[in-house]
Request: fold
Amino acid sequence: MGVRTWIEGWPVYRQLTGTDPLGRGAAAMSARSERLQPRTETADSMARSVCPYCAVGCGQRVYVKDGRISQIEGDPDSPISRGRLCPKGSASKNLVTSELRQTTVLYRRPYATDWEELDLDTAMDMIADRYLAARDATWEDVDDEGRPLNRTLGISSLGGATLDNEENYLIKKLFTASGALQIENQARI
Amino acid sequence: MAECHPVGYQWVMEAKRRGAKVFHIDPRFTRTSATVDTYVPIRAGSDIAFLGGIVNYILENELDFREYVVAYTNAATIVSDDFQDTEDLDGLFSGYDPETGTYDPTSWQYDGHLPHGQMNDTPVQRETAAALQHESHGPPIPPDAPRDETLQNPRCVYQLLKRHYSRYTPEVVERVCGIPREKFEEVARAWTENSGRERTTTLVYSVGWTQHSVGVQYIRTGAIIQLLLGNVGRPGGGVLALRGHASIQGSTDIPTLFNLLPGYLPMPHHANHPTFDDWVGSIAHPSQKGFWGNARAYAASLLKAYWGDAATPENDFCYGYMPRLTGDHGTYQQVLSMIDGKIKGYFLLGQNPAVGSAHGRAQRLGMANLDWLVVRDLFLIESATFWKNSPEVETGEIVPEECRTEVFFMPAASHVEKEGTFTQTQRLLQWREKAVEPPGDARSELWFFYHLGRRIREKLAGSTLRRDRALLDLAWDYPLHGPEQEPDAEAVLREINGYDVATGRPVSHFTELKDDGSTVGGCWIYSGVFADGVNQAARRKPHTEQSWVAPEWGWAWPANRRILYNRASADPEGRPWSERKAYISWDPDKGEWTGPDVPDFERTKAPSYRPPEGATGVAALAGNDPFIMQGDGKGWLYVPSGLVDGPMPTHYEPAESPVRNPLYGQQANPTRKVYRRPENPINPSPPEPHSDVFPYIFTVARLTEHHTAGGMSRMLRYLSELQPEMFVEVSPELAAERGLEHLGWAHVITARAAVEARVMVTDRMAPLRIEDRVIHQVWLPYHWGSEGYSTGESANDLFGITLDPNTLIQESKVGTCDVRPGRRPRGPAYLEYIVDYGRRAGLTPDHHPPIVTTDAVNAARGNAKRSTKKED
Amino acid sequence: MVSAESLFGPIDPAPDAGYVDAPPRMGFFTDTSVCIGCKACEVACKEWNLVPDHGLDLLGMSYDNTGALTANSWRHVAFIEQPRPLGAESPALAGTATGPSGSAHLAERASTPPGVPNTDPGLPPAPHPGPAAAMAASPEFLGMPGTDLPGRQERAGQRTDLRWLMMSDVCKHCTHAACLDVCPTGSLFRTEFGTVVVQEDICNGCGYCISACPYGVIDQRKGDGRAWKCTLCYDRLRDNRVPACAQACPTESIQYGPLDELRERAQRRVERLHADGVPEARLYGHDENDGVGGDGAFFLLLDEPEVYGLPPDPIVTTRDLPDMWRRAGLAALAMAGAAVAAFVGRRSA
Reply:
């Protein structure tokens, strides 16, 4: 930094030599203010999304910086929401980044008083085993009159309504093929 | 709407700014009430009396849109001579069987018809919530029925309706609902004056309406009004359901529901649907009109999507693999089965029944009696921690060291960490792009279920058991991406859309689906979402660059239609009813229907078209039959078939009510689904004694600042601080009566639970005059539980389990209660406290409220026998 | 006297603060007549500006649990429940019942004296006597904000009207901003958009601005020490983006734009509301001749400003500063003159 630049950066110099003799505006602008840019502008990417709360279906723009969500705000292009969001929609980044979010598998052994850690792959395998065991133990081939039942009433499921259509489709397909018909959803509630 | 759908409410505010008059009818004075023209307080659970009053006002004053009503509804259709109304039978319809608590609907049919298939097997209809199938199409009926277009025949629907609602006078509305006569007349006048050729009125409800023992009939009453006033299929009209969750519409379209398959096809029933032909034959009447006549193609294409190459016409597309219903397998039955130890494993997928479902105690006791539980969620919700942190742990009913349930908490990916479609409340599918990878072990449901299926199939490889064929033959190959092997959601959407098996070309419309195994179609109503091989749900053309209908934003089922039945926006000759309300109309020069939306009609079928004798299916639809998914092409004022609890909505008191039904001897819905079990006591209602132990009405609802069971709001700092505590709102009068202090503690008591909350004394809660007495209502938000930044007790613990007979949805918007100052007792003293209340209310373990409360039941039954005989 | 560098009167603040070719002055018009109290503004502001949460505290002030504008709440939605009509709308509670519930029989049971073991079937337990007695006796029982006494029987029976006012408050971005005038570090400055912003890299937490603000807006953050308030999303403005609160607002209650346009729009809105039978609609903070030279963020209110917790007649606290300096200068000169005179006098003496 040259001496001249250094002096020109000095607020009092700017105040005395510039258009802002009281030093309340242009002359008082800090280096940070000088460089200020909205982080939507500096994001690496932006995804077009939809709010996960109620069923209005407001458009969201999800900004990403360094692999992390940096901002979620309304999508002005949406004919439904025209860029607006309610407090819940506005808090979507809080939802995704809340420090209460549990991001590792937890396991509670029968009769245990606390959680323990479990590897995802092991957990998947344990669930698959239990699924098949429950199905075997409660399988019903036919009813009293010999009519087919092809089912188990030993397995239940209750899904929320923030599941995607594609997810619901695979859930229904897998459960139906397994004979597990006790699938339910928030839609019943 | 301002409370729970604030961004949708912008359109109401905009309409208001342009001169629309807005009414809000609600037991609570909410943020919506604060911004409308007229707030109408109502007693929770009395909506049919209010809406029935509007129907009566329309018919008494002949204010219906006659030309529309005659041409487009079943007002002119003649009903069987055997039909007897609630007017004749003190609140029952003909055909009631007190043994099963259901109706034989034979006498309700159009003249000369008999119920099709299993439509008269109403016990099974109720157990399987069969009425839900009619979300996309009407029940199966023959196309032809005698009509009297002068509407003078006393057996025509118009006259039956008039008689049925004749007692719903403004005085009755006042007595039943607590709505002052002037207020009622203000609504009735505005609604009727603002409907007709030049104007339309919209009815908006939120899905609290469904949570009643007469929920379906609430909505039916709204539909009757809108049909009488010509407000269906027209811009600015309709009955708009404000669904409460991002894809709750999608979750019924592609159901994860026990009784439905994608596109509202029924799950097969062991007795009624032994073969593929029986199954398909039962869901569409062979001669019925309209697009539901193609049900066989939709069914075959679905099975083809499930079992791929293994599904052939010769083996009925593997129909034999399908599991069969034997009755009620709904979520509440499941919970009771858990308590009984019949269920081994339970998956919770982004759902928190410990807080969100009725009767939280039953939910938690059920979960504590499983072999294993898988909870997939973003957060450690109450349903994941019930074994160590629940009211039952405090009372000693659940002891962690004695609770055997093995719990797997599997972290889930959030909405920005996966791609896929939500279907929002107006049937619009919108694709979400993935922004970032999910953190840690978090995965999408797509990943979880694909890989669970893969592992299960690998473990079963080589099995020769018959039962395993359905899994081994399953079409379960989806492209996988990335290090986590995430299944390709677009490939799944493509299968849902359907494609031609030989060429792989996606179909563009459900009419391209075939019944010969040459097409795959995972959900027929979604066919077209991948038209031209393009993900139509991902379209994002700015609204500023297209028409106000915005057809190029996302994709709406069916066939990208934004207003259903929009043929009705034109008169029978195909001309707009008025220039002001022009939408879809017939262009005689081009020979097609045109307008800003996709016509919900065959594009080139002229208004003058009349079907030839004996025509069926689509060909049987006349050029002036706008309701193309109905068996007769008409909008139904009267429902001859398909509903368990009657062809016309009737005011019944809620299962728990402090008052005797002022209209009929029959107190509550005589077909409601009840579970007579000791853990499910129901507060007494008149004519039973001791209802005054629970003298107040309570309802539960949501706040703008929170979401449903709180799993997506109590875990967020910015939302928790806006409504940091559970509270109960009471009127100043009730506060004085019960000694409640603003910001002090109170607890609300029912036969199931006592729930404590901070007191909010506010003028917004107004007591109502019902009959000759003043009745107080209180309300509680139901967002709280023991986890998160903001904690509190769960209001849904207060409810018992009583269900709507058509949908098996619980009555959780109204009940009776007592309110007491201070905090509730804790530990064992708490259990004694509840038992003591039950004892004073006369609720012994074997006590159950009577279903039938009128002597007319014998006459109704006699009628049932007669009609059965006639059928023989 | 109005001149450049004035601390009072109507001016265009950005050129006054030395910006050559400044863009038009930007601001907020908050139309409380369409506010639905959803608090999207509060959350959108916090998400964008990374404002810490203000903590969990049930205030009992209707649905307001934020309480005030603070360092950790740059938007604040006030809720006011009043027993009076809202414009031309139908009386909300006309014709509804008032008074105690049920029948005489029920009332009798409710008043069963404590200690009576009324546990027979059909009998409710005795009520707790404490709060009821306290309420009957105490004139200080306050319900929602307001001076009425919910629960007092004399008002029951007359209740027909009810309105629920909601208003999203924010920093007013005054034309003459006392906070800025008193800031000794140059942290508070006037932007080219005419808004007033605390520069977090400069602020040293001296707190002078806090007592200077005539609206009580600016506030020191605990544990941080610096002063914080609404920046009108200065960073977003520099990229032609709408401030986070205005973008989120579902009903356009919060409108953002050039202040001149907003003032015209607001005037039309008031006229429209008056024509529609809402005579109580009035503007607040729009007048360039008020005590702060007009606000960059002004409001349409449906009642007196005090009802919303706003000062009725705010005056820039530095209004008399030039005059005071002038007088102080004169006094100093006089003193100096006297001293000189004294010396001169002594010499000459």
User: Anything to note?
Assistant: Chain A has four domains: 3-35, 45-97, 102-136, 138-189. The two ends of chain A are 68 Å apart (CA to CA). The mean pLDDT of chain A is 93.
